[in-house]
Fold these 4 entries.
Entry 1:
Amino acid sequence: QEEDPLFCAYDLLPLTMDTVTFQNPHHLAVAAAGNDQTHSVVPGSKHDHGFLGPRVDTHRNDSRKNGFDTVNSWCVAKNALCVGAIQDRLVAGAGIVLNAASSWGPTDDGRLKPEVVANGQTVISTIGQSATTESFDSQSGTSSATAVTSGIAALVVQQMIALKIAPSGALLKAVLVHTATDRLPAGPDAAYGFGSVDAEAAVDVLSSGVIRTEQVRQGQPVEMRFNSNGARAPRVTVAWTDAPGTPRWDPVVKNQIALDDPTPMLVNDIDIELFAGQSLKPERPWVLDPKDPMRAVQARNAVDNLEVIDAPAASGEWRLRITAARLGAGQVQPVAVVVSGLGGCTNCAP
């Protein structure tokens, strides 16, 4: 076996992270995607180890998939927000340009990772040189991008509390993804996710959008209604903290995770559909194309516990339907809902 099975695999590390977040749903784990996208596929030769620089060592290939399938284990957790690294947008002329080493997904079961990207180029921060000496240093990579994202997340939580919005890990994740700046073409991909985190937009949507937490039960869909003036294209984001999955072990090699096992890790499967007017044809969420992870299609998503619908602007009534396709754990699943571009919800309880 030439390929390292741990990249993008649901092993004991994501299992642990999902267990902790499932037991503490107020908590959002923000994790670095890793800096392994540019590793050579020639073991034993001098090759790049991301921000660690070139070195000679011998190990199995990170991936045989042209840079895909290189996200580290922590980021594979369903309830984590996985962050890739981009160049400083001011230096890059406001464009969204990926750091060369930033790891790509998707996970082995086809989930989107990373979900967002952030500045990971020469980020300046404090550094402890010894027990008594402190200084500043600049670092690059997805760890730096994760620190940037965590800082933005803290500001969003602060604003939630000020607006008397009850924070949760799922709601915070939904807000950060909902307001990320997309890199065209539209839709997520396995390198940039839904785009670059945007602190201002994340804070603004708390006041301008519809922010809800709904309880979804089997056989009891939740329906939210809106009346749009058609001025803006609607976007709907729904996220939930899912129960831990079950790691798949290699049937031959003892204590080794199975290589590229596509078994879905999703336990509670929630579906969202958006209807314009009396149309019976719904707008559906984005889901990665398994044959081409750099593009996404709009279809039923049965793998992610984060779903986003983008629809063309149209005036009139809109209906958002949230359904429990399967509840493998518990009788009710709390879901975080973020809606923009549709005005206020006309049938929601205060």
Note: Helices lie at 12-23, 73-76, 142-162, 169-178, 199-208.
Entry 2:
Amino acid sequence: MLRFIIAKFLKTDELLYRKTIAAQSLKTLYMKIHKISLLLFLLIVSGFQWFAATTIYSQNNPASGIQHPASSIWKWTLVIHGGAGGQAKGSMPADLEKQFLEKLSEALKTGSSILEKGGNSLDAVEAVVRFMEDCPLFNAGKGAVLTEEGVAELDASIMDGRNLMAGAVAGVTTIKNPVSAARAVMEKSKSLLLIDDGAEKFAKEQGLEIVDPSYFITPERKAAWEKMKMSEEKHGTVGAVAMDVQGNLAAATSTGGRMFKMKGRVGDSPIIGAGTYANNATCAVSCTGHGEFFIRNVVAYDLSALMEYKGMKLEDAANYLINEKLKNLKADGGLIAVDKEGNIAMPFNTNAMFRGYVNSEGKNGVEIY
């Protein structure tokens, strides 16, 4: 009897022991599952936060998510212009013509020195336009033409063909280099176009150089303004387009507008799609000429659209726009452009267009007529 009781007790104890072990195993398994679930939850939350942070709309990251990445092709191209219009061949004094050609060459060197080292197209076009804004020969920055009130009101824009981001300023009178202000708008704000004192306040906050409005007025421009008659209206622009070794395209344009223009008048130069456009899928464009016509015909974007939707080659599309479409409207002007293969176009329908080009294959030149 005693042996039976002891055996039963031992059997019961063994069952309790097994149940205890099983319970501990289940508890351990539960704890492991709980830790794994918690880890997965944290990973999902972190991923969601990262996604939300990178898709909030800003100029640095468009909500549309449009991207046109390019593969490295290890060749580059730069095209510049100093405005269309002016005197017929033979009318300009030889020494002045020489000065223009020299400054165009210097502008090309400014941009090519960036591109040949593998620098990006955006830096190159900004540097070129800054150089031309600082040169009093051109109608941009220092040396810009004056409004009817005798003030230089400046406009500029810049566009990145890689992601279709753009920035612009208009009607500014104290920003030394408007093109750099345009780039700051693109990269450091949620806006695309800022005007007048709002643009100047923003530029100052970004640490850009601010000058007195008199800085932009040269004796030559002042004299021209004082003698101005409606039949002698003068205009011009500066611009640059580039393709870098990564195949990315960029464009920038800057201007003082038209001589004796109405206060507050804005032309095509700061209007994306009219005076400036860049898209890695097609081309980069900078225009010069009678801005109102370029705005109404969205010329810069139209060039890209003709290539993208009609399959036209860059040169054919550019010539059609300037020498047919605009000419038929009695609109004067020209444009410079480079496509995703590095091909260039520089058509104009005026007496002259100050222009130049250079590429990684050693081809280069500066021209006026």
Note: The longest strand covers residues 249-258.
Entry 3:
Amino acid sequence: MSKQDDLFSFIQSLNQSEKRYIHLYLKTFVGQKETNVLKLYTYLVKQSTYNIEKLKKDFKGEPFLRQLYKVKKELKEKVSQCLYLYNLGMEKNSSLLRLKHRINELSIFYNKSLLHQTSKQIKQLKKQAYKLETYTDLLICLDWEERVILDSKERKPLEKLSKVYEERKKALSLLVELNKYKELLNQIAAISNIQTHGRSGVKKQEVIQFLEKHQLHKKPDILTPIISFYYHNTLATAYMIISKSAKSYLHSEKCWQLALNHQFVFIGDNNYKIKILMNLLNSLHQNRMTDKHYSYLELLKNEPEIDRLHHYEKKAFIYIHELININMKREYEKGDQLMLSMKQQLDEYVDHISTSQLQNIYAISLNLSLVLENYDLAYFWNERILSQKVSDIRFDLKQFAQLIQLLILHQNAQEIDIENNFRSVQRYFNQNKNVHPFYTCSLWYFKK
């Protein structure tokens, strides 16, 4: 038995439409000698887990088992080819794929000595590359244009070559500026994702120094839509960390407007609109803008996920912000059903979302359960916090959960458990130096 199998994981990541397309493709185009590929694909699609022993048992007597590795490798290649063709025809994914596909076609026309046709296609591709702001593709087009000019017998080739070289310099300067702001966004995102144990000001100070070092109060020298997007996204994230919520909201809103008005292409990230909405919702929450928070939350719910990778991340985020919205509007009774539903589905989320997102689910659910005086549900969420590894959880949240455990037991009049838990909490606090004075006072109250 194998716990993980690359081919099986790949097939399981497909949605129903993709699975159906691949099945029809394999059925239509796979030759008689390759029917084993179709057999294996049909079998793996129906399985919920990968079990090599079960596979061998179910295909007992089939000759291809002796070459299973080869058949699996061939199937993986076929599935990749099918997905490429499938995405090429999908409007939401096609812009960048079609551009790259047509760039690859240039070598075909060129090798057939169809220089006029090659030149005509280069002009179309350059226009599209500028529109999508994919400057690496633009540079490839310029390389082809240079080659066609050198091979053609047109008059004044030097004049045309000079234009190509000037355009290349411009494309390179745009690429340098774009990469600069990409790097800045990734650096601030890395600071944001660092696990901080407690509410220390270390992260805030690091961000303030970052803003000063890179002079981000100044706008970029070259301000194309995509560079502007990275610039505002960097500032939105930075101001969120240092709790300048009004500025964070302004830059998050700017990112959203840019995303609505321009067709951005991010390699490997087709869900950028979802991420922008998430940042915007966080800043709206910080600014207590309840009505706008609700409106943008509805937009996020209706924004489709293009891949499965962010499915649970999006669902968890929506759950957290639905509870936030309930808290802001003080409509607490609406939270009961939401929390019970999450409790039933929680195991599905554990392996698919980050530790910090899980902690947010536990903490906000615990908070609302206490407000509703649903101590059984509060106990469940609190136990989840306490069961986390010490290295994975903020120590102030761990301290808070220890005290809440005593409060829940006190409300349920479980005196024996309170006494045992009190000693456990006291030992925990004695072993930790950074205990907040409020928690120490609270523990003194329980002692009395």
Note: Residues 157-193 form the longest helix (37 residues).
Entry 4:
Amino acid sequence: MRISTLHSSADTMRPATELLTKLPSPLKPCQNIRQLLSRLGTAAAKVNGSLAFMEVCGTHTMSAFRCGLKTVLPENIRLISGPGCPVCVTAQSDIDLMVGVAGLANVIICTYGDMLRVPGRRGTLETARMAGADVRVIYSSLDALAIAQKEPDREIIFAAVGFETTAPATAAAILEAHRRGVDNFSVLASHKRIIPAMRALLNAAPTTGLGVDGFMAPGHVSVIIGSRAYEPIVAEYAKSCVIGGFEPQQMLSALADLTELALAGRSALINQYPEVVRADGNIAAQKLLATIFEPCSARWRGLGAMDESGLAIRTEFSRFDARVRFSLVQPQESEPRGCLCGQVISGLAEPGNCKLFGKVCTPINPIGPCMVSSEGTCAAWFKYGCGGGAFAAKSKPQELLS
């Protein structure tokens, strides 16, 4: 199969080697939403049956619910949330490890705010802090390094999660700690790589029954890895990938392109975000990642262990690896009883299918990470309703969208 890449649906199909090397085009005004709805509706009306497209980005998840995107889609077009929330995909055993590390003597554990309330088998980082552990919320990996320099008699452990978007910042902190000779700083890394997860979903589809006709590819991750990274998904699985932005117009345009490609029986890679996503991505960030990390097998919530789906700190920087530094042993994997977060982030269930949702599991008393994270599907459902809040209140959502 020849992979074709477009910068907009108006372009003709050309070889990837031609369009993938183009410099980003100037920002073009979006079609208004009424036009995009008409275009999507026209294509959907010609589809025999239904189509399901998956977004694999937590920001897409929350943006779609916030603007009520699902309430205006044609009945035969579904947008499924996949494993795009970094907090949600973090394995339960990694959460348990973080909570356990927080209880070590003379340790300060630093992490991002979303991780504070994710439940483990022995509580959360928040409950560990209430019990006396020194747990601090930071906004940058360099904040943790600064704490290490200010408190040289304490061990500072940065519990780092996220995809290729946040991993370069973690790598930068490790490299800077190495340069400055900071000896009391280490990282408990749980970073993930998105392409192996997409492959795993598609490889398991014959068994799980997951039906995905294409992907709305993540904008933020794509800035780092580049549009070319999705070529294997198109070539090997015949699944279109459209890299889109986060505004309603941008998401609708991506869905329209995916629907038109499916209708035409074609698979293609379309970069609708050329202003920030280049073919080869951010080379400097990729080199930084390759300097500090190497791909490794990693466990994902709901997806299990996948080869090369994580990032491990290289041996030459192992003194900054908390797993090595403290001889940490990974706990056994154990999901909360009755929680469907694993199925939700795999696209196999919706929050409404979970008996705990909105009853036992709420933002005040979350059972799983999808209800905790600001990018979690369950949190979005709870806050905005199953279709989304902004549009659902209108009897004619198209008028609001125009």
Note: Confidence is low (pLDDT under 50) at residues 1-5, 7-29, 388-402.
